Amino acid sequence: MHADTHEDELDPSSPLVDVVAELFGLLADPTRVRIILALDVDELSVNHIADIVDRSPAAVSQHLAKLRLARLVTVRQEGNRAFYRLRDEHARRLVLEALRQAEHAVSDSPRHHGER
User: Fold this and answer.
1) Within a 10 A sphere around the Cβ of 95, how many other Cβ atoms?
2) N or C: less crowded end of the chain, CB within 10 Å?
3) How crowded is residue 6: how many other Cβ atoms within 10 Å of its Cβ?
4) How far apart, in whole angstroms, are the C-alpha atoms of residue 46 and residue 68?
5) Sign of the torsion angle spanned by Cα atoms 19, 24, 27, 29
6) Which residues contact 48 (CB under 8 A, 6 or more apart)?
7) Cβ neighbours for 56, distance < 8 A, ≥ 6 positions apart
8) Coil, strand or helix: which one is 107?
9) How many CA atoms lie within 13 A of 39 on its CB side?
10) Looking at the DSSP assignment, which residues form a beta bridge with residue 67?
């Protein structure tokens, strides 16, 4: 068994399955995925995130609020400015794996498999 895997996490009857489905629903929005990708590098302000994802700061704030409620991002206040970062590496890994799966959906030779 892989050291990272626990048999109880793979149980289809786990109550966490419903939480996973909710999480996937939350990440079904392209702007939220872009926000997670933007935050992969560093802690960023709402305005900086808005510039990166090409959305208004108000829209980004609404998305960040949902990501906070899902405990995917955290916020640090500095005066009247808020700086967001990923809560842990799991959101990044989840999105990375989804991107890799998306490569399979659009290509017979996904980039992450390298040249063959």
Assistant:
1) 20
2) C
3) 10
4) 13
5) negative
6) none
7) 50
8) coil
9) 32
10) none
CB 20 within 8 A of CB 70: no
Token pair, residue 91, equals 């959101």
What CA–CA distance (Å, rounded) separates 9 from 81? 38
**Helix boundaries (H) for the chain:** 16-26, 30-39, 46-53, 57-69, 89-106
CB 76 within 8 A of CB 85: yes
**pLDDT per residue as tens digits for the range 6-33:** 666 789 999 999 999 999 999 999 999 9
Summarised one tens digit per residue, pLDDT across range 64-99 is: 999 999 999 999 999 999 999 999 999 999 999 999
Q: How far apart are the first and last CA of the chain?
A: 29
The dihedral of CA 23, 27, 28, 32: what is its sign?
Answer: positive
